[in-house]
């Protein structure tokens, strides 16, 4: 008799993200100086994103207009994204320029990515969403060490979402807690 094991869909998707992100290139883009503007809610270009503040857990996080958590990537600089190619598939860049809704404080800017597209920045950090956050109010990408660096949600107030717990079992989670 043969046993058939089915992994939950979330486990399979997470394993795919870990495998794909771990092999991505970290070639840098040719960034330009950020065109910084205070986050005052002033109107921006129609191609950009609206940034909002939403409560996720016990923290007020920076989100897009749909309530999805925004992240910054440690290897990035204020003028250059280090997340390109496969990485950008799993951590989609937030298009710039961005506008700020009520409750969002900080300096908004724009960089030019290696592919020529514009990406929004907040306080000098290029912004991303995470494909693992499938619904508003999630912060599953916080603390993940993928694609050559650590990802952090942007906490406007309160306590940050906890980083994923490392697995201590031999379940094949590769220490990512999936």
Tally the helices.
Answer: 2
Shape: globular
What is the succession of H and E elements? Answer: HEEEEHEEEEEEE
Count of extended strands: 11
Q: In this structure, how is the largest beta sheet organized? A: 4 strands, antiparallel
Strand line-up of the largest beta sheet: 1-6-7-8
N→C terminal distance: 29 Å
Poorly predicted regions are 1-46, 167-178
Return Rg in Å. Answer: 17 Å
Report mean pLDDT, rounded to a whole number: 76
What is the helical fraction, as a range of percent?
Answer: 10-25%
Would you tell me the structural class of the helices and strands?
alpha+beta
Strand content: 15-25%
Give a brief description.
Helix content is 11%, strand content 25%.
Q: Can you walk through the features of this model?
A:
- With 178 residues, the chain is an alpha+beta fold.
- Helices cover 11% and strands 25% of the residues.
- It has helices at residues 9-22, 86-90; strands spanning 37-38, 50-56, 59-64, 71-73, 99-100, 107-112, 118-122, 125-126, 145-146, 149-153, 155-158.
- It has a 4-stranded antiparallel beta sheet, with no helix packed on it.
- Strand 2 (50-56) and strand 3 (59-64) form a beta hairpin.
- The radius of gyration is 17 Å and the shape is globular.
- The relative contact order is 0.24.
């Amino acid at each position: 008799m043969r046993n058939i094991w089915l992994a939950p869909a979330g486990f399979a998707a997470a394993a795919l993200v870990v495998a794909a992100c771990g092999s991505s290139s970290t070639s840098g883009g040719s960034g330009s100086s950020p065109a910084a503007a205070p986050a005052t809610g002033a109107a921006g270009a129609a191609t950009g994103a609206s940034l909002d503040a939403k409560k996720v857990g016990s923290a007020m996080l920076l989100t897009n207009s749909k309530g999805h958590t925004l992240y910054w990537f440690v290897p990035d600089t204020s003028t250059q994204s280090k997340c390109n190619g496969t990485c950008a598939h799993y951590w989609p860049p937030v298009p710039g320029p961005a506008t700020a809704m009520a409750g969002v404080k900080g300096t908004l800017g724009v960089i030019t990515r290696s592919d020529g597209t514009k990406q929004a920045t907040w306080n000098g950090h290029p912004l991303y969403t995470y494909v693992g956050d499938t619904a508003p109010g999630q912060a599953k990408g916080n603390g993940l060490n993928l694609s050559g660096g650590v990802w952090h949600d942007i906490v406007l107030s309160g306590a940050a979402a906890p980083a994923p717990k490392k697995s201590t079992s031999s379940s094949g989670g590769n220490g990512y807690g999936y």
